[in-house]
């Protein structure tokens, strides 16, 4: 008995390729260090509004966490393949420089 009947292999392959091509960019985002911008007063410290959380810092943290979560999902999907040769091919093609 076939459990999955209506899978379009071509479309699935295209979607997987589109997602996996983002791996290296996400890896850079997940590992990037935060570099504050130099302000008009030439201070390296980002301006703060009353001791609250800086919006730029918050956005950087959210972006980094999102990238890490995406990378983990991709790694889990690749590692869940039953054929180790397919795993190796995907890692060589999309994950390594």
Could you characterize the architecture of this molecule?
The protein has 97 residues and is mainly α. The protein has one domain. 60% of the residues lie in helices and 0% in strands. The chain contains four helices and no strands. Helix 2 (23-31) crosses helix 3 (55-79). The longest helix has 25 residues, at 55-79. It starts with 8 loop residues before the first helix and ends with a helix. The model has no long low-confidence stretch (mean pLDDT 81).
How far apart are the termini?
Answer: 41 Å
Main sheet record: none
Radius of gyration: 20 Å
Report the average pLDDT across residues: 81
pLDDT below 50 for ≥5 consecutive residues: which ranges? none
Helix content class: 55-70%
Oligomeric state of shown chains: single chain
The proportion of residues in beta strands is under 5%
Number of domains: 1
Q: Give helix and strand order, one letter per element, not per position.
A: HHHH
**Structural class estimated from helices and strands:** mainly alpha
- Global shape: elongated
Number of H/I helices: 4
Number of strands: 0
């Amino acid at each position: 008995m076939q459990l999955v009947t209506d899978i379009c292999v071509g479309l699935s392959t295209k979607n997987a390729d589109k997602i996996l091509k983002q791996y290296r960019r996400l890896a850079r985002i997940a590992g990037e260090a935060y570099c504050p911008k130099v302000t008009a007063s030439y201070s390296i410290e980002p301006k703060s509004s009353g001791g609250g959380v800086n919006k730029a810092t918050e956005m950087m943290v959210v972006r980094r966490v999102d990238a890490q979560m995406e990378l983990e999902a991709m790694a889990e999907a690749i590692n869940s393949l039953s054929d180790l040769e397919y795993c190796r091919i995907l890692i060589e093609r999309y994950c390594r420089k």
